[in-house]
Design goal:
- The chain is of the alpha+beta class.
- It is about 25% helix and about 35% strand.
- The strands form 4 sheets. Strands 1, 2, 3, 4, 5, 6 and 7 form a 7-stranded antiparallel β-sheet that branches.
- Strand 9 and strand 10 form a beta hairpin.
- Helix 1 crosses helix 2.
């Protein structure tokens, strides 16, 4: 097997302290750390790094069987050294060896539109072609980040992995808008995937792109991330339009013997879709009442459900507007059984708040937690 290798060094005031912190962080993310030949060996999957701390520098050698693994390890080492050292105190040599020079991020793909189709009046499916899509096929991580270039830009500009192993962003006026979406369908062998877009009035970057998308248009994709399907004795899915693509993909992928219920909230009957699901699944559609904008049909449906205290274990997956998310999460904490049930409850949007502001609020909440 051919092994790719790259080397770098970082000038630091206290390299030993930075190395200790870096190792602790990598262990938290399931890396295996050990001492080897006077250095520290860090192993993640098939990739490895050997780090040696001197008086005023940290030397790094990374190895991997492929370029993507090598670039991921270079980014992990360089970004954590910069993050863990005092601000502005790091001077790097740049990486030499395999994979030198600027490149796309290891988890980044360029997607090209190959077709579009309307699903409902406010949902459009866009099909894309891309390369090396295998990492995006997992059902354990459903979400991807999509990069939408500014309208009218002749040539998209993407984030790059620079020679120092860190991420370099395009100039602000060329920088893509980034939003999270769910892959609805994927065919790794054919190099194609489909993503369903909600068309909404505030015309965020994703909705605006979906409105005008045509064959040949390009966007970026990175990931995957988030939590998806888990094995359980029965399932409960709660979602509005923003979570519907994820629920639809999970339903289509469940074992034929799976049992459960999907409760899906949409504007009206025209927004319902035909969904593939196991025979033991019930699908219930809820329609919002325009005369009661503050109502929470998904919360009411959840509170009305009843299951045996000693019944089979449940996996609850829910995605909805922020205020409903807060209420469903609080109700789930009261009703779900810690020893038997699992859950993932998320907020994809917030009424009256822009996508940008909602994303910032979620990041701030995560940092505080």
């Amino acid at each position: 097997m051919t092994i790719l290798r790259a080397d770098a060094h970082f000038t630091l005031s206290d390299p030993a302290a930075v190395l200790r912190s870096l190792c602790e962080h990598m262990i938290e993310h399931e890396a295996v750390v050990s001492e080897q030949d006077g250095g520290t060996l860090i192993v993640t999957g098939a990739s490895r790094a050997v780090l040696r701390a001197g008086e005023d520098r940290l030397e790094a050698c990374v190895e991997a069987p492929d370029l993507a693994g090598l670039q991921e390890m270079k980014l992990a080492v360089a970004s954590h050294v910069v993050e863990l050292a005092p601000p502005g105190s790091v001077a790097g040599s740049g990486w030499s060896g395999d994979g030198s020079g600027p490149s796309l991020l290891p988890d980044f793909r360029v997607l090209t539109v190959i077709g579009t189709e309307p699903l409902t009046p406010h949902m459009r499916r866009i099909r894309f072609r891309g390369e090396n899509l295998a990492r995006f096929a997992s059902l354990e991580a459903l979400h991807v980040r999509l990069f939408f270039p500014p309208a009218g830009l002749a040539e998209p500009a993407w984030p790059m992995l620079s020679e120092d192993g860190l991420i370099s962003q395009p100039p602000l006026e060329q920088r893509p808008a980034v939003r999270k979406y769910t892959i609805r369908e994927i065919n790794v062998a054919a190099g194609t995937l489909a993503i369903d877009f909600v068309l909404h009035g505030d015309a965020g970057p994703g909705s605006a792109f979906a409105e005008r998308a045509a064959a040949g248009d390009r966007i970026g994709m990175a990931g995957p991330g988030g939590r998806g399907l888990r094995e359980a004795e029965r399932y409960l899915f709660l979602a509005d339009e923003t979570g519907l693509p994820a629920v639809a993909r999970m339903l289509a992928s469940l074992p034929r013997e799976a049992r459960g219920l999907a409760v899906l909230e949409v504007a009206n009957a025209r927004e319902e879709q035909a969904l593939e699901a196991p025979a033991g699944f019930a699908i219930r559609w809820l329609h919002r009442d325009p005369a009661a904008p503050g109502a929470a049909p998904l919360l009411q449906a959840f509170e009305a459900l009843d299951w045996d205290e000693d019944g089979p274990g449940l996996y609850l997956w829910a995605a909805m507007e922020h205020e409903t998310f807060r209420q469903v999460r609080a109700a789930a904490r009261q009703r779900l059984r810690p020893a038997r049930d699992q859950h993932l409850i998320v907020s994809y949007w917030r009424n009256g708040v822009s996508e940008e502001q909602h994303a910032l609020e979620k990041k701030a909440a995560a940092r505080a937690a």
